[in-house]
Amino acid sequence: HYEANNNVDDKPRANKRRDMNEAHASMLLDIAKEQPDLHLDQISEELENQCGVQYDPNLCYRELKRRGKVLKVMARVAAQRDEYSRFLYWEEITALGVRPDQICFLDETGVDSRLRQVRGWGNVGERVELRELLHRGEHISVLALFSFTGFLDFDHIVGGYSGEDVLRVFEDMVVPQLGSYDLNESNSVVVCDNCTAHRMYEDALIEMVESAGARLVYLAAYSPIDNPIEMGFNVFKACWKREKWLEARAGGYRV
Question: Where in the numbering of this chain does the Tc1-like transposase DDE domain appear (predicted)?
Fold first, then answer.
């Protein structure tokens, strides 16, 4: 700079503001609220498009942090979720007047047969290797029954569940676990996920459950937030990796 200009004045800075007024800060907060998945440079660019002033991404970060915004893991919420349907579900549960131990939840999750721990102990600066037979992973579906006290039972198959598979699981696994709703017994209300396979033979499932003296209720569509089994599945998968629950055998797998 000295050789080019023959002076020691400060080097001219880029045309970027070093502070942010309230109006632009309000725009910044609106951008972060409406598009929370943008990167800082994208936020800066969008802010410039709206207000005509270029702000450095670092300034945007400091301003967001000063106003209580932090970078967090996002929870994906289905746009198809209907809050009125959720209201009707909770209204139905409330009308049944049940205790927590009377409700059990049925839902499906999926894991890869290669699911393993990804971290291991080793020396600093050295790669950690674990020698094992590698194979092409298969998708394992697990259909589990979850209650106030934890998992009651589960079924698993390679691939996804069909309507016929769900019928089999209800007959062999779910119904034997159910109590009588009229006698206020435990596990007397089954809350079932609203996926297509669970609805395919809805009338037959309702008849099967009610013949055991229990009740069947379906969750609102796209509402896993109302199903506590999701938290149980998180623990289930962690234990799956830690304890290596899946054992490959001729003709299939054993969990």
Answer: 103-244
> Into how many domains does the chain fold?
2
Asked if residue 3 belongs to a domain, the reply is no
**Residue 214 included in any domain:** yes
Q: Residue 154: enclosing H or E segment and its boundaries?
A: strand 150-158
d(CA 46, CA 38): 10
- Could you read off the pLDDT of 45-84 as tens digits, one per residue? 999 999 988 899 999 999 999 999 998 888 777 777 788 8
**42 and 164 fall within a common domain:** no
Which residues lie closer than 8 Å to 230 by C-beta, 6 or more apart? 107, 224
For residue 117, the tally of other CB atoms under 10 A from its CB is 10
Q: What is the rounded average pLDDT of the residues 81-109?
A: 91
If one counts every other C-beta atom within 10 angstroms of the C-beta of residue 245, the result is 16
User: Does residue 202 sit in the same domain as residue 90?
Assistant: yes
| pTM of the complete model | 0.68
DSSP helix/strand/coil, 55: strand
CA gap 216, 221 in Å, rounded: 15
Q: How many CA atoms lie within 13 A of 228 on its CB side?
A: 12
